[in-house]
Amino acid sequence: MKLVVFTAMVMALVLTPNSLILASKQPAGSERASSSGNKANKMVALTFDDGPDKKYTGKVLDILKDHKVKGTFFVVGERVKQYPGVIKRIVQEGHALGNHSWSHSHLTKLGKEKIRQEIVKTDDAIREITGFAPTLIRPPYGDSSAQVKEEIHALGHAQALWNVDTRDWAASSSVADILKTVKSSSGNKITVLMHSGGGKRDKTLKALPQVIDYYQSQGYTFVTMSELNGVADNMKGSTASTGDTDVTNGGTDATKPDLSADTAQSDDASVITERNIHLIYNGSEVNFPDAKPFIDENSRVQVPVRFMAETLNFDVKWGANGSQKNIILTKDNVNVDLKIGDKAAVVNGTQIDMDTSAMILHERTYVPLRFLSELVGMDITWSSAGDTITLSYKETKDDNSDEDELTQIQPAQSGDTYIVSTPRATVQQAKAWATAKGATDVFIDLADIVWDEAPQVGVDPTVVYCQFAKETGFGKFGGILDETFMNPAGLKTPVGGSDTDHEAHQRFTSWEEGVQAQIDHLALYAGAPGYPKTFTPDPRHFPGLMGQAATVEALGGTWAINPTYGFEIVKMMMELQATNS
After folding, report:
1. Residue ranges in 458-532 assigned as alpha helix (H)
2. How far apart are CA 442 and CA 56, in angstroms?
3. Which residues form the signal peptide (predicted)?
4. Could you count the other beta carbons within 10 Å of the beta carbon of residue 259?
5. What are the tens digits of pLDDT across the range 390-420?
6. Helix (H) or strand (E) holding 537
7. 560, CA 20 to 30 Å: which among 22, 74, 129, 259?
């Protein structure tokens, strides 16, 4: 088994917790503050439906930023896929995300399976971009039923409605009408419905600053909807309520138990998300007789440490330094020290940051699945519908390739076309070569970015550009990806998946981001100085890949299964270098 050292810098598999909330839709003004002097407890959540879009959502974000106010955005899955950059901005600026279905359909008119698809597809789209799936879901039109709520809860979500509808979506409503509705409502906990997409929202943009000013003048604190109701928010790591009791916006304020701390040494069942997780390893489901995988308070999958001992053949020892407990995992030349409750591991003497901690629960020790998979070089495939996780080892060769061809190629894997090198050709040669090959205008123009960025990290831009040409057909694509992915090298998402699944491939927010990700991935493979990087758009920047292919020839069988992959790129490079500018 090949062992690789791992830094959990990538986004992990995310599932949703079991905290549930039903924020009941009520007539405006139905809840009144108990006293005018109780301003310290007055909170309002501004929520925005039907985004993202390329016009209004950004302007709503600008207004919130100017006023230093956080909001909750209930986004439509189809639009999430169209505007990933807007989703990233929402999260980066500290706002919360909610699920608003895939196609904005009336969920009450759909069967159970269709309802689940609407929810799960949107979760997956958000997770692909952010690394997290939201806790809250708002059914389109506020149209819910017993069946809808049952499916929402079964998927671990909380239904989130509102108690102040500004009707900013209505053609008959004016800015004055929106403000009148807002001012006619009061109470200690208010959820305001507005919109950031899905139609013309100029009235929303005009009214929003005045809505904010009004609530501030009345002593309200602006919070996300999860914070308002004490529900765990995967996007922000906020506090969580325990149990399955529904909470309404019109209810009394409850004390919120703090489950957000990193330490997880107590035997506390309330941190578990009760879902039956199936783990497939080597084609068979793993049987966990006395301790099963679960989802922790950070929405990460944890697996019993005995899986590493009994199935992966690690030697496992327990230790303690005072009150601090730790696990020592050893196998071959790898030594891992995991401190319980600490989001860091020490691998062969190097501290590695993780996205959640190892923990002890019911006297059983658990380790994060993402950390485990990268430690031993396995890919994870997640099926939301069946709560099934499949672990498989990263392939290094094409099992269907001709044996004689492999025998001939293997000795050349240490070829001398080094990835880390000074430029072998000029940008003018690259453009002339691309033009002669009938490349698209976008592909030709991107040569400037490649020649600007690649030399800064020591990578030969000729390698980058020729790989770009091979992967995209000189910018024409035509395969599983298209130009809208802005993915020049076919990079996959952190979770990955099949080569024939377009959803397994990363969508970048700009060509600049996509090219930088390709350069960083090549530099990582080549073992370039300064790699792995802490901040990179490369979605699969796994330290275990460091130095696996110093030469272009060695990319065959590592970057790609095809053993001739690197040689085909070298041939392109020779053509480019021979081109007169």
Report:
1. 461-472, 511-526
2. 27
3. 1-22
4. 20
5. 887 654 434 443 333 333 333 333 458 999 9
6. none
7. 129
The angle that helices 427-436 and 461-472 make with each other, rounded to 10 degrees, is 20
Instruction: Convert the pLDDT of each residue in 243-264 to its tens digit.
Output: 333 333 433 222 222 222 222 3
Regarding whether 407 and 389 lie in a shared domain, the answer is no
Reported in sequence order, the residue ranges of 372-434 that DSSP labels E, i.e. its strands, are 378-383, 388-393
Q: Does residue 412 share a domain with residue 342?
A: no
Which pLDDT band holds residue 232 (cuts at 50, 70, 90)?
low
Say yes or no: 364 and 435 in one domain. Answer: no
Query: Do 438 and 320 belong together in one domain?
Result: no
Q: Is the peptide bond before 293 cis (omega within 30 degrees of 0)?
A: no
Q: What is the pTM of this model?
A: 0.41
Q: Which of 369, 393, 417 is the last residue of a domain?
A: 393
Active site residue 153: no
Question: Above 50 in pLDDT, residue 160?
Answer: yes
Q: What is the CATH number of the domain that holds 89?
A: 3.20.20.370
For residue 475, give the CATH number of its domain.
1.10.530.10
Token reading at 476: 């024409």
- The answer to which of 29-38, 39-48, 418-427 has the lowest mean pLDDT is 29-38
Reported as a single tens digit per residue, the pLDDT across 428-445 is: 999 999 999 999 999 999
455: which 2 tokens?
């030399």
Residue among 100, 195, 521, 541 flagged as catalytic: 195
Identify whether residues 215 and 121 lie together within a single domain: yes
In a domain, residue 248? The reply is no
Does the residue 190 lie in any domain? yes
Contact predicate 271/296, CB 8 Å: yes
Widest Cα–Cα separation across the chain: 85
Q: Is 106 an annotated catalytic residue?
A: no
Give the other-Cβ count within 10 Å of 172's Cβ. Answer: 6
Cα separation, 470 vs 556, in Å, equals 13
Q: Are residues 88 and 69 in the same domain?
A: yes
Q: Do 482 and 375 share a domain, yes or no?
A: no
CA quadruple 138, 51, 508, 513: dihedral sign? negative
- Choose the final residue of a domain: 375, 393, 411: 393
Instruction: Give the pLDDT band of residue 180 (cuts 50, 70, 90).
Output: very high
Residue 353: count of CB within 10 angstroms of its CB: 11
Phi, psi of 401 (to 5 degrees): -75, 155
Strand partners, 304: 366
Distances (CA, A) of 228 to 39, 209, 253: 15, 21, 9
In a domain, 107, yes or no: yes
What are 485's two structure tokens? 């992915």
Please give the mean pLDDT across all residues of the chain: 78
Q: What CATH number is associated with residue 317? A: 3.30.457.10
The label of the residue with tokens 């001939």 reads 408
Number of H helices, E strands in the chain: 17, 21
Ramachandran class of 222: left when φ > 0, alpha when ψ lies in -120 to 50, beta otherwise: beta
Domains in the chain: how many in total?
3
Structural domain boundaries, residue 348? 273-393
Domain co-membership, 572 together with 482:
yes
- Which of 49, 123, 124, 337 is the catalytic position? 49
